Amino acid sequence: MVITYRHAEPHDHPTTYNIVTKAMQEHRGKHNFPFPRAPVIQPIDLALRQYTHKFHRDSYWIAEDMGRPVGFGLAVRNEG
Q1: Do 19 and 71 meet the contact criterion of CB atoms below 8 Å apart?
Q2: Could you tell me where the DSSP H helices lie in 1-80?
Q3: What separation, in Å, do the N-terminal and C-terminal C-alpha atoms of the chain show?
Q4: Which pairing describes strands 68-74 and 60-65: parallel, antiparallel, or unpaired?
Q5: For labelling alongside 56, which of 11, 39, 47, 73 has CA 20 to 30 A away?
Q6: Calpha distance 70→2 (Å, rounded)
Q7: Is the Cβ–Cβ distance between 41 and 5 less than 8 Å?
Q8: Can you say how many angstroms the Cα of residue 11 is from the centroid of all Cα atoms in its chain?
C-alpha cells in the first residue's frame, strides 16, 4: 500500500461522500445501529465541499492508494 495525497477537485465531491457513508455504515454496523444515507450526495454535504473547494482549497485533500480514493480530509479555519 502506497498512499499519495492530492488536492481535491469538484469531481471528487461524490467520492468523499461515498467514503464517509461507507465508514459510518461500517462503524455503526458494528454496534447494530443503522446508518441510512441517501445513495447520492445531499445538498448540504455538497455545499460544504463546494465552499471548502472555493475558499479553502489548500485544506481539501484526497488520499489515494494506487489511484483509488481511500480517504480525504477537509478543514476550514476562520479568523476569530
Answers
A1: yes
A2: 13-30, 43-55
A3: 40
A4: antiparallel
A5: 39
A6: 11
A7: no
A8: 12
Q: What does the DSSP 8-state code read for residue 10?
A: G
In angstroms, the CA 53 to CA 38 distance is: 22
> Which residue type, as a one-letter code, is found at position 73?
G
What pLDDT, in 10s, does the model give residues 46-70? 999 999 999 999 999 999 999 999 9
Distance between CA 22 and CA 3 in Å, rounded? 19
Bridge partners of 6?
A: 62
pLDDT in tens, 25-40: 888 878 888 777 777 8
In sequence order, which residues have a C-beta less than 8 Å from that of residue 67 and are 6 or more positions away?
Answer: none
18 vs 37: CA distance, rounded Å = 10
pLDDT at position 40 is 80
